[in-house]
């Protein structure tokens, strides 16, 4: 399939990313937000590409580089928060909507890990462009103590690149759930991660989640993988997370067996992506 590089000027800064060329008439725009330590190519790993599948299904996807990743400008240290990133990405999606939104019902956000936390921030802002729904995965409300301690043990300044062994242990499930060539191919989208992001996701995010989620007034799809190494995983945690979205018209949840944190690269990635695109279609149809 064909992808194109994207560059958006937003509030004096630049947001970059990838976009597909598929474009069925009347389909919603889909915007994908990656997690920490990866750029927009996270959603375009060979054999596991959300962008390829979406293009085949006729959806236009914009996989954006969050601030500080890919070619997107880095926010100053005193502005490098999920809330500030959400504000800049809100404006970027607004620009995409102005250019590509004619004749469409709206926008659906698909997101992973820290990208999902930022998607909730965006939805809580009640953006001016028509947000139809948010699909979240790879995020939770409680991290294991050893993960919190690991982030606190990292250098306090500058970006950090996780050792490959630690990345494999935390982000991918057992060998039976993922192919080695997919893990290797995903390394092309790996980038250093800000320690500030890692600390916010285990501290500020859980503290603010309930207040943010209560402001989300669109449908929510939520998936947590059985072998996610960054979050406490159980049916009760999935139910608790869903329960924060008290203003959402409906919330769809799944505890996904046989997969790890980077679910998009596992053997079950196709199942995830098909469910995500089904959610996109349902949000668009209900909105119409």
From TrEMBL:
<dbReference type="GO" id="GO:0003824">
    <property type="term" value="F:catalytic activity"/>
</dbReference>
<dbReference type="Pfam" id="PF12697">
    <property type="entry name" value="Abhydrolase_6"/>
</dbReference>
<protein>
    <submittedName>
        <fullName>Pimeloyl-ACP methyl ester carboxylesterase</fullName>
    </submittedName>
</protein>
<dbReference type="InterPro" id="IPR000073">
    <property type="entry name" value="AB_hydrolase_1"/>
</dbReference>
<dbReference type="InterPro" id="IPR050228">
    <property type="entry name" value="Carboxylesterase_BioH"/>
</dbReference>
<feature type="domain" description="AB hydrolase-1">
    <location>
        <begin position="30"/>
        <end position="261"/>
    </location>
</feature>
<dbReference type="InterPro" id="IPR029058">
    <property type="entry name" value="AB_hydrolase_fold"/>
</dbReference>
């Amino acid at each position: 399939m064909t992808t194109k590089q994207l560059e958006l000027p937003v509030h004096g800064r630049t947001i970059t990313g990838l976009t597909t060329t598929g474009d069925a008439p009347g389909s919603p725009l889909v915007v994908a937000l990656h997690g920490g330590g990866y750029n927009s190519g996270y959603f375009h790993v060979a054999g596991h590409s959300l962008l390829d599948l979406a293009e085949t299904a006729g959806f236009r996807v914009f996989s954006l580089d969050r601030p500080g990743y890919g070619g997107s400008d880095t926010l100053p240290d005193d502005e490098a928060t999920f809330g500030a990133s959400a504000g800049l990405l809100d404006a970027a999606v607004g620009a995409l909507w102005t250019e590509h939104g004619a004749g469409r019902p709206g926008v659906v956000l698909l997101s992973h890990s820290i990208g999902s936390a930022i998607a909730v921030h965006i939805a809580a802002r009640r953006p001016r462009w028509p947000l139809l729904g948010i699909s979240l995965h790879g995020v939770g409300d409680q991290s294991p103590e050893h993960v919190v301690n690991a982030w606190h043990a990292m250098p306090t300044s500058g970006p950090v690149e996780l050792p490959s062994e630690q990345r494999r242990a935390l982000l991918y499930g057992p060998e039976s759930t993922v192919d080695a060539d997919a893990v290797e191919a995903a390394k092309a989208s790996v980038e250093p991660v800000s320690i500030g992001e890692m600390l916010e996701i285990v501290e500020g995010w859980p503290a603010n989640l309930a207040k943010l989620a209560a402001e989300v007034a669109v449908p929510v799809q939520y998936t947590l993988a059985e072998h996610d190494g960054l979050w406490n995983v159980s049916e009760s945690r999935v139910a608790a997370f869903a329960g924060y979205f008290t203003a959402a018209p409906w919330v769809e949840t799944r505890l996904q067996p046989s997969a790890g944190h980077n679910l998009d690269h596992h053997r079950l990635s196709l199942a995830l992506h098909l469910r995500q695109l089904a959610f996109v279609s349902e949000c668009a149809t209900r909105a119409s």
